[in-house]
Amino acid sequence: MTPVGATRDDGVLRVLSEVAGGPEGAHSRGHRWWTPVRVLLALTTVVLALGMLQKTSCFNDTWSDGDTRFTHMCYSDLPYLYTGRGLAELAWPYSGDAEVRERYDEVMEYPVGISYWAWGTAWAAHLLADAPDLAERRLQSPDTYFGDPQVQREIRSFVVINAVGFALLALLSTWLLAGVVPRRPWDAAAFAVAPVLALTALVNWDLPAVALVAGALWAWSRDRPLLTGVLIGLGTATKLYPLFLLGGVLVIAWRRRDLRSFALATGAAALAWLVVNLPAMLGGLAQWKVFWTFNSDRGPDLGSVWLVAAQAFDATISAHTVNVVSLAFFAAWCLAVAAVGLLAPRTPSLAQLGFLVVTGFLLVNKVYSPQYVLWLLPLAVLAVPRFRHQLVWQGTEILYFASVWWYLGGQLAPGGGDDAGFYWLAILARVAGELYLVGIVLRDMFRRTPEPVVEPVDEVRGAPAPILQTR
């Protein structure tokens, strides 16, 4: 199981390697200590450090400068939710206590996994920042918290603790992705060095779900459907989209005539989801339901094609209309993915099917926050393990990342006061980038013969030494 050399396998990496001694030779034995996985983990560490450095200007003023967070593209939801959702008072996110709800009418609008993580890291931040007695704090109005010097120290501690946790999750994700195809650990390099990982890791709590998706892909590659289901269930309790992997599991199980594996994965996912959700449901059922009602009542929002349509045509699109049309489109998309998965000459990978389904969801979702690119990242790097395609797609995501902050900061507003047309173009470019990868995945799925993705030149004979590796 000798790993396929990255520079012998990918044309872009082969060219880039010229600045560091050139591509790997045919007789290279590799380094005794610097294994592919260790190199990938080191690269992930560097990329995450650069991402944290990019947030420095916001961190230094505790996200208090309303212009800097947009012009420097260093915005994060974490500081504002720390004071706006009761974390500064360590209030249980699903508390139905009348006093808590009077002070905080807005409940954590996230699935329980994120709420638990945020609550736990808030406790750690209180301990690290030597927070005062909570009874004394509750004498203040929550509206005054954000400007309080002590609370600002807690916010910085809160962000640091989350950043460390996210870094560990990203390293875990890299390790898991590198192990999905043992002979091709370098496929995870596109995750490890992803610019979008550096830019968006600290925007919100999306990396826990990313790590669970990476774990599900790893478990499925090891033929462990029960563990796959548990990880999908935990991922669904953290973000909704990991649930869609079960569709890919069904297609693969159907093709293999192994529906038992699908049943095991589905049952384990349901049980894991229920166990994680029970504390929140028992602690405050009404508060637990907020995530579902919040998304149902939401209208066209940032980054969505619905926003482009509403602004470009000066139309009012109701939440009900978006719900019905999006659901119909997504249902049709899932049926199409199932059809191509069953008709493809070879059984597709779970990453390929998962990428197609999650992309369909994001294409018509009511909102596309910039960190949603992380939902696709672990799936994309395994579904399309080619740097040239990753560069095209991530380039469109970076364009969107920059444009959304400049749009919110008013930098894209035309002088005449009309809507920001450039922001619409950035949204459409992002959609085009996702559809580009969809096309590549479909192309690969319907190739009847494995693509020769590595054909090194034999250094002794000077002739090609054909080595076939399927994607």
UniProtKB/TrEMBL annotation:
Its main location: membrane. GO terms for cellular component: plasma membrane. It is a multi-pass membrane protein. Pfam families: GT87. It is found in: Cell membrane. GO terms for molecular function: hexosyltransferase activity. The chain crosses the membrane at residues 33-53, 155-178, 190-220, 226-254, 261-282, 327-347, 367-384, 391-408, 420-442. Keywords: Cell membrane, Membrane, Transferase, Transmembrane, Transmembrane helix. Belongs to the glycosyltransferase 87 family. This is Putative membrane protein.
